[in-house]
């Protein structure tokens, strides 16, 4: 049955994380009556939920923040180059208090359904407790990585120990001291957990399906002098994030890889490596994304670095990625991760050699036998880009279900709107850089600004409804596919392509034309009075 109209607002936002808070602040400024609906009991989104040991941003704190308030920039002091989860969460709590955002947020509220009502041109929402709300505009601020992926391991429910997904870590923590712990997954999350808990547990078994590249994080506690220097650079930083390929604050190496002689290529890679950041990935040689020969050479450089840190050459061979190029999947930063495998209390199970057959009451059975465990940690990632949206029963024009449509064909216009779903704005949805291939805060703030401008424009011009035309959407997808098709990223199995989930449509989630090109495309729509969009 379709959802009935309820309490009436101008706009509803789902999610009180990075995007939702800024969207609330922005729409309030337009004078709109807005509410945010949030499942958690607090703000912070990703930084509320992911409270597993070692959770930390891989983007430096100076570019993992809001730019909308100079006062906020002046008063907030980052403690570290890479903020830990607690610090990031504290930042969002501060922002919520500082701008009195909480009064317009309903916590502990999960949205079950959102239906477009053609007669009133409004979205009607129903929450899990049966409350109904309605609004002219619906903005989803769910984050690209909010729906945890729990793979369907056989015998899952028979395990008698503790089973936990990293993104649903209990707030009170888990006492891992002296326990036999298994971690499944060696992505950015798995790496952080593994390096954080190895010394504490009695035995750690890591179940690895795909070996990952990772770059040593050079974290640093900031002194007052560091902070002053960082603040002095804010104007340049703010400019740089909009003009660099993935919204970081440093431009890429200004040379084509093979234009440099081998010794200089090597020296440049060493310099990038020594920065202890993601620079070697996102601000290094762009050829890693599309040129196989360059990718192979750069990947071998990183493999050497990994091999040098592992004592046992057999273990090293398992940990060194062979089947994909450096940077074609998300590159994690790490702190002593590879040395963990030199410890006596750590073993690595290569799931290609010994696949998991099932979970048992006592642990996990692989084809090589049963491993007894007290705790199993699933660092198995997310249903990225789409999972947050398809968890909600969203129905557009003529009652068409997004969940149903997206089973076979995921379509959006610039990741911002979807044909057939008027007045729905989808931050972090597929086919914008924000879905994956971008410093999230940069791209998400840009999307919030675009949405806010769009809603302001409608108000100014006496319009109430906006929706991209079918042709505009097809043109954007064709453009996206053309760019994606030229990259190695699209040819590599990962959550970037939906490849982490069986049966998920295979298409690069993230727009890969770069932040400047994406912004230009969005600006053009605005400048041309939303050409290609239908306004009513
Ligand atoms: P990721 O990057 O998707 O990593 C998930 C890991 O879990 C990865 O190693 C997967 O192996 C592994 N996995 C997933 N399903 C299975 C099954 N069924 N069996 C064995 N192993 C499995 O998620 P993260 O949480 O680490 O990171 C997500 C993003 O958060 C990250 O990119 C940052 O942006 C922050 P696979 O590689 O698929 O073979």
UniProtKB/TrEMBL annotation:
Its cofactor is FAD. Keywords: FAD, Flavoprotein, Monooxygenase, NADP, Oxidoreductase. GO terms for molecular function: monooxygenase activity. SUPFAM superfamilies: FAD/NAD(P)-binding domain. The keyword Flavoprotein applies. It holds the Pfam family Pyr_redox_3. The keyword Oxidoreductase applies. Belongs to the FAD-binding monooxygenase family. This is Acetone monooxygenase.
């Amino acid at each position: 049955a379709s959802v009935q109209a309820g309490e009436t607002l101008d706009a509803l936002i789902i999610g009180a994380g990075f995007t939702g808070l800024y969207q609330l602040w922005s729409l309030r400024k337009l004078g709109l009556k807005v509410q945010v609906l949030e499942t958690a009991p607090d703000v912070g989104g990703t930084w509320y939920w992911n409270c597993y040991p070692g959770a930390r941003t891989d983007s430096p704190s100076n570019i993992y923040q809001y730019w909308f308030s100079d006062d906020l920039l002046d008063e907030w002091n980052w403690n570290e180059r890479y903020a830990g989860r607690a610090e990031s969460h504290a930042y969002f709590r501060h922002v919520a208090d500082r701008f009195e955002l909480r009064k317009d947020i309903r916590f502990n509220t999960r949205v079950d359904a959102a239906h477009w009502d053609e007669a009133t041109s409004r979205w009607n929402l129903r929450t899990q407790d049966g409350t109904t709300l309605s609004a002219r505009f619906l903005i989803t601020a769910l984050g690209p990585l909010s729906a945890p992926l729990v793979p369907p391991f056989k015998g899952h429910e028979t395990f008698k120990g503790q089973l936990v997904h990293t993104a649903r870590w209990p707030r009170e923590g888990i006492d891992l001291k002296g326990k036999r712990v298994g971690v499944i997954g060696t992505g950015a999350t798995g790496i952080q957990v593994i390096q954080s808990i190895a010394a504490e547990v009695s035995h750690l078994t890591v179940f690895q399906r795909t070996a990952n590249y990772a770059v040593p994080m050079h974290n640093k506690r900031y002194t007052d002098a560091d902070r002053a220097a960082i603040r002095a650079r804010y104007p340049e930083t703010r400019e740089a994030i909009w003009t660099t390929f993935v919204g970081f604050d440093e431009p890429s190496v200004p040379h084509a890889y093979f234009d440099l002689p081998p010794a200089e290529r090597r020296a440049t890679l060493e310099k990038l490596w020594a920065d202890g950041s993601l620079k070697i990935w996102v601000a290094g040689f762009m050829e890693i994304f599309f040129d196989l020969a360059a990718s192979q050479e750069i990947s071998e450089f990183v493999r050497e670095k990994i091999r040098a840190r592992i004592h046992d050459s057999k273990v090293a061979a398992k940990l060194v990625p062979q089947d994909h190029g450096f940077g074609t999947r998300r590159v994690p930063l790490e702190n002593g991760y590879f040395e963990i495998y030199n410890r006596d209390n750590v073993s690595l199970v290569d799931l290609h050699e010994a696949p998991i057959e099932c979970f048992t009451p006592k642990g996990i059975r692989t084809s090589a036998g049963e491993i007894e465990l007290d705790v199993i940690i699933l660092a198995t990632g997310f249903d990225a880009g789409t999972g947050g949206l398809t968890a909600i029963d969203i129905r557009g024009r003529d009652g068409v279900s997004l969940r149903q449509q997206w089973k076979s064909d995921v379509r959006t216009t610039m990741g911002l709107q979807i044909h057939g779903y008027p007045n729905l704005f989808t931050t972090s949805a597929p086919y914008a850089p924000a879905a994956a291939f971008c410093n999230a805060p940069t791209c998400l703030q840009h999307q919030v600004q675009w949405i806010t401008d769009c809603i302001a424009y409608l108000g100014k011009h006496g319009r109430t409804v906006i929706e991209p035309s079918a042709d505009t959407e097809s043109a954007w997808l064709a453009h996206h596919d053309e760019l994606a098709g030229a990259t190695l990223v699209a040819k590599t199995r990962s959550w970037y392509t939906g490849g982490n989930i069986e049966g998920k449509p295979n298409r690069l989630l993230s727009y890969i034309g770069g932040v400047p090109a994406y912004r230009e495309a969005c600006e053009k729509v605005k400048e041309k009075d939303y050409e290609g969009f239908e306004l009513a």
